Every structure is written in structure tokens, then in C-alpha cells.
Amino acid sequence: MMAHTLRFCLPTPAQCATMDEAASRITGIAALMDRAGWAVAQAVRSRFAPCRVLVLCGPGNNGGDGYVAARYLERARWPVQVAALAEPREGGPAAEAARLFRGNRVAFTPENARRADLVIDAVFGAGLDRAPADEVMNVIREAGTLVAVDLPSFVNGKTGAALAEGPDYALSVTFVRPKPGHILPPGRVTRGELVCADIGMPMRCLEAAAPDIWLNQPGLWSVPAMKPEDHKYSRGVVSLCGGRIMPGATRLAAAGARASGAGLVRISAGRAAEAYRLGAPGLVIDDAPLAALLEDERRKVWLCGPGLTEDEVEATLPVLVAAGRVVLADAGALGWAAGAPDKLRGVSVITPHIGEFAGLFGKPGDDRVQAVRDAARELDCVVLLKGSVTVIAAPDGRVALNDHATPALATAGSGDTLSGVIATLLAAGMPHWEAACAGAWLHGEAGLNAGNWPIVEDFDGHLGDARARAIALAADAACDD
Ligand SMILES: NC(=O)C1=CN([C@@H]2O[C@H](COP(=O)(O)OP(=O)(O)OC[C@H]3O[C@@H](n4cnc5c(N)ncnc54)[C@H](O)[C@@H]3O)[C@@H](O)[C@H]2O)[C@@H](O)CC1
Ligand SMILES: [K+]
């Protein structure tokens, strides 16, 4: 695993346990716990004025971090009390942290939570394995301002799912790397501001955890830059199947492909060619039969689905797959395969929204990452599930979470632009998962820069700058390692 990709990893709680186990053999957990608790105290001190703090401590190492935070806050002369749900296991690092805290202890009750100005929740973290009892939730729900140690004690660190109904937090302080549950909704909202503290975890321990979920950032992948010797075929040809009834979607995808740097974009429009020829002058419109177009080996990458009826998909997609082309299937192609995902076997990338995903594979449930990963394995293709946080899985199990996005992208045609961008990156020669990840990021970046209430056509004007920025950021990431 390359060092710079470790920078973007999001270890799951199970992987954190492996990491902690490896660390216990090198530095010992006590030193890490001390830095973790110190980081919590520092994050609190730098955001809040001194006030009455109650630290809720659970029986494990999350509770251990809580005792350390309490000790450092008290040392800074903050009025601090600790309420323990249960005493830590004797002989462990949390028991030692509890022993070193010599301040006030109070009962673990809703009344005590209500009396505090600020409640630090160190009940459960990575070890959360079931819904907390009412005894715990009743105390958390009474708190005014809440700060989580690692995670809110009812949020699953792997999935972001809330295992009980609970309040939103002002701040969460996590360690080493954010967890998937900090990025995926609803945990993403519940956790409030996120601080990730460096506690000196040796990188080889993180490596030993073998993380396989990543935050989608330039550097996780790199997008080809312009080269002096470039010509349109080296930049790549994107071919799209164009339908008769809904040419808009195909044209939006074609525009997205051109704006993100394709060398040449062609629409195979058959008998609808005349209508497409009235569109953008930089597009090439073909009316020859698909079989004839496929004789051109330079036309490696095809986008099939936007603007197509099921009959039009039926007439094109199997032909493209049989010809061994790299096929990105979206929109109409996903509807065509609903209930029979095997029809998509042989395509390289699919980009469903949640409804299309459910039609193909069933509802994803609480663990979206696992559902998308399973779908990618099942179909042996990259699956990109669109959403406020987009999940992109490769058949080999790698998953990226893209939160580089804005609700401004939630406008009709936005998905067509995205599939056009991904097609361009595939045509530029990027590996399939990396192209899908990079496409999601470029699309998000364009949306973030497209001003207030943009319409879909507005994104195109920002895709070139987005690609340049991705190239620069990936180069920075490579230099930093
Ligand atoms: N990953 C890291 O780098 C570090 C992690 N540390 C802390 O260690 C934490 C993980 O500690 P642990 O593995 O001890 O686990 P936790 O402290 O999260 O949980 C402790 C135990 O509580 C029990 N439990 C879980 N859910 C429960 C529920 N709903 N009701 C009742 N009991 C429940 C389980 O048996 C679990 O083992 C992290 O969240 C973090 O705060 C730090 O101390 C230092 C370094
Ligand atoms: K917690």
C-alpha cells in the first residue's frame, strides 16, 4: 500500500482494533491514550470558555480517553466531574487513566448531565457493538452541548448508522484517521465539527490494519495532465449512444465529457442524427450502424444509457459488451437491467442513484458501503452509488467515499454530466475505479464553484479548472510523501 494512500484511509472499528493491537506491541496503548485525551481537552479548550464539564466514561478505552481528558481539563483549572457508567477492567490502560484522575466523581444520571454546561461523551467508541441501553441514552439526551470522544456513543463507526435516537453533537474528536461513520450520514451530521488528532500512531500499525475504505481525494488517484505531444486520440475518444426521444440527457453527458478534457466526443445517433447535428458544433454525430462504428479501434470507451429507452439500450449495450469495449452504463441502461443485474455483466462502470441501485440489487440497508461492495463483486464492475456522500466500490473490495460535493449538484441532468466526466477519464486511460473516483471529485468541485442555484449546464464551465486543481493537488500529495 502506498504511503500517500494511507493518508486518505478511513479505518473501520474492526481495523482500529487490529491497529490498537499492533500498537500495544510497539508503543503501548497508555501513551496513545494519554495523547488522545490531551487532544480532546485541547479541542475543548480552544473552542469553549471555561465552564462546568461532565465527562461520561464507559468501561473501555473510549472511557480511558475520557478520564485523561478530564485530568487535563482539571489541570487547566476547569470545573470537571466524571460520571462512570461502569468501572474499567482492572489492569488495563483505562483503569490506570481512571486512577490518575483524582477529581470529582458523580453518579451517571440524567440530572447530572442536565446540570453541566458541557458534556464529554466517552461512553463507547470503536467498541460499540449494540444499541446502548436507555440508561445511557437517557443521560446523553439530557446534555446541552455535547462533545464526542471518537464518535457519539450511539453511532456505528463503520456505517454511520444511529443505533438509538440521540441528539446532534457540537464536536467530535477522533484519532489517527476519521472513521467511515464520521463521513457517512447520519453519523456525518450527528458528529458535528470533526477534529482528527495525530496521536503518534506508528504508520506500520495503520498499515497492519489493512484499511480498504478511503476518503475520495486527489492523491488517492491522479488524473492525466496535458502533454506537449498530445493529440485528440491520445487524450481519448468518448462515444455515446444517443436516443431518439430524450436527446437532452445524451447531449448533457457529451458536454460533460468535452468540458472535462476528452480529445473527441462522438454520438452514435442512428436515425436521430439530424436532431443532434443542430447541437454543439464540436460534437461529431454518427449515423452509421453501430457495428460499423465499432470497427474503429480508437473508440474504446462507450457511454450507454443517458437518454435511452429500454429498447435502445437492448439494441446497443450487448453489442458494445460483445465487442469488448469499456462500457459505462447509466440511467436507461440501469432501468433496462432492473431485477436482472446480470444483463450488465461485462460493463466496466455503473453509476446508479439510490432508486436504480435498489432496482438492481435491492435496498442497501444501513451498511451502504457493504451493499455497494457486494454489488461490485457480484457484477465484477465498478459501482458508484450517487448520494450526498457517493460510495464508489471496486470488485476487489476497495471503496472510496466522496463527500466533495454540494446540494447544488442535486439538479436534473447532473448525473448525465457525471457519467460524461467519468467516460472522459476512462478514455484518458485511467483504471476504472480511479476514473470513477476522480469523476465524482471533479463533478463535486465543479458544483462547489458553480455559484448559487446553478443549472446543470453551469457545471461544464468549471470542469476544466476542476481537472487542473485535481492534477495540482495530486502532485502536492505525492511531493509531501
Ligand atoms: N484507535 C486508536 O488509535 C486509539 C483508540 N483509543 C480509544 O479506544 C476506543 C476503543 O476502545 P475499546 O476497544 O476498549 O472499546 P469501547 O471503549 O468503545 O467499548 C468498550 C466495550 O464496551 C462494550 N459495549 C459496546 N457497546 C455496548 C453497549 N451498547 N452497551 C454496553 N456495552 C457495550 C463492549 O464490550 C466494548 O468492548 C476508541 O474509540 C478510542 O476512543 C485511544 O485510547 C487510543 C488510541
Ligand atoms: K464516545
UniProtKB/TrEMBL annotation:
Source organism: Asaia lannensis NBRC 102526
Domain YjeF C-terminal: 215-481
The name this protein goes by in its record: Bifunctional NAD(P)H-hydrate repair enzyme
A Pfam cross-reference name: YjeF_N
Family: In the N-terminal section; belongs to the NnrE/AIBP family. Belongs to the NnrD/CARKD family.
InterPro entries, per the entry: Carbohydrate_kinase_pred_CS (IPR017953), CARKD (IPR000631), Nnr (IPR030677), Ribokinase-like (IPR029056), YjeF_N_dom (IPR004443), YjeF_N_dom_sf (IPR036652)
Residues in YjeF N-terminal domain copies: 11-207
UniProt keyword terms in alphabetical order: ATP-binding, Isomerase, Lyase, Metal-binding, Multifunctional enzyme, NAD, NADP, Nucleotide-binding, Potassium
Residue numbers binding AMP: K386, G387, S388, V389, T390, G415
Cofactor note: Binds 1 potassium ion per subunit.
